């Protein structure tokens, strides 16, 4: 981590981050189908309400059926080893494993290079998009690594490309209900900072 902090301004870091952003684009189409989520499992990970078909009528209206927790929900703590993967990700797994969240957040917190910031936010944007389980894991990992306030703070940056990339990343993070609540809390004093930031939040929540 110390090495990352010392090298954040290097051109090599900028090039690598931009390459990783490109490699992480639409990853869910490149991984085995077994890693994709079914709709019910995705709703569990996102913290959404059960669909209407999971409700049954009663005298007091519709009564929701209790959901059983999936083994993955019981075993995965958000930042530790993920069921089905090795403790230390290898090869292509390193592109989407939640352990990549911390280096990206370090770059977002320490770098002043707009291209590096845009690339790091773009990578998190790509990794947190789509209906696959690792997008949900990435969203949870960003929250647990306290990355949401880092992203929100970058909305104040005087660079439209960075702000746009960060706003889209936050929009994906907000698919997680707990993230959405925290983003609203962290950003309560940011919306009026500039009209540009207000537009970013319209993009985030619409």
UniProtKB/TrEMBL annotation:
It comes from the Eukaryota. The keyword Nucleotidyltransferase does not apply. Keywords: Cell adhesion, Cell junction, Repeat. SUPFAM superfamilies: ARM repeat. PROSITE patterns: ARM_REPEAT. Residues 47-84 are annotated as: Disordered. One of its GO terms (biological process) is cell-cell adhesion. This is Plakophilin-4-like. One of its GO terms (cellular component) is cytoplasm. Its main location: other. It holds the Pfam family Arm. PANTHER family: PLAKOPHILIN-4, PLAKOPHILLIN-RELATED. It comes from Pteropus vampyrus. Residues 47-56 have a biased composition (Basic and acidic residues). Belongs to the beta-catenin family. ARM repeats lie at residues 146-183. It is found in: Cell junction.
